[in-house]
Specification:
CATH topology of the largest domain: Arc Repressor Mutant, subunit A
Number of strands: 0
Strand content: under 5%
Number of domains: 3
CATH class of the largest domain: Mainly Alpha
CATH architecture of the largest domain: Orthogonal Bundle
Length: 179
């Protein structure tokens, strides 16, 4: 006589990536993926419906791939959905900025419209961001270097500075003669 193979029917079935999520677990996954970094895991677990006394432990267990592979899989899938939904691409970015510009103009908010249009131009590469970083200051220069820098500025500004100085000297001499 052949003996039948007996399978264990007591207790909870083993958890795998294919195990269905409970309502609380599904809510936790959604909260975790949308509010990650803004709330503590304990608060997210409490909001999902887990008891306050065990919320910290439940959150830890749910995010442990050895204990809850099905929840970790759901988190990966939800993150992928959110990344796809909110992904930034060049065409959509320009279209969104164009909508913002048009709505701002319609609302009479020309500052926002200008900012949106400038952002579109920057995204398209129409503007070049240049900055000049100078090291040192006049405090670190010698008297001769300061005088040389002033002379260079005078030459750059041209005749207007020389004329202004000459007029200033004439006015000074005239005022001294009156005294």
């Amino acid at each position: 006589m052949a003996e039948a193979i007996k399978t264990e029917t007591r207790g909870r079935p083993p958890i795998s990536e294919n195990t269905r999520l409970t309502g609380k677990q599904a809510k936790f996954v959604e909260l975790y993926c949308t509010r990650e970094g803004t709330e503590t895991l304990q608060n997210l677990a409490i909001e999902a419906g887990f008891s306050k006394s065990g919320a910290h432990t439940r959150a830890y267990e749910m995010l442990n791939p050895k204990k809850s592979p099905h929840i970790c899989k759901a988190v990966r899938e939800r993150r992928a959905e959110l990344n796809e939904k909110y992904a930034v691409n060049f065409g959509q970015h320009l279209a969104d900025l164009g909508k913002i510009r048009d709505q701002s103009i319609a609302a009479g908010n020309f500052a926002a419209a200008t900012a949106a249009e400038k952002a579109r131009g920057q995204a398209a590469g129409l503007y070049v961001n240049r900055s000049e970083i100078r090291h040192g200051s006049i405090d670190q220069m010698s008297k001769e270097e300061v005088q040389q820098a002033l002379n260079d500025l005078k030459r750059q500004l041209g005749e207007k500075v020389i004329e202004h100085e000459a007029n200033g000297v004439e006015l000074l001499e005239a005022s001294q003669k009156e005294d």
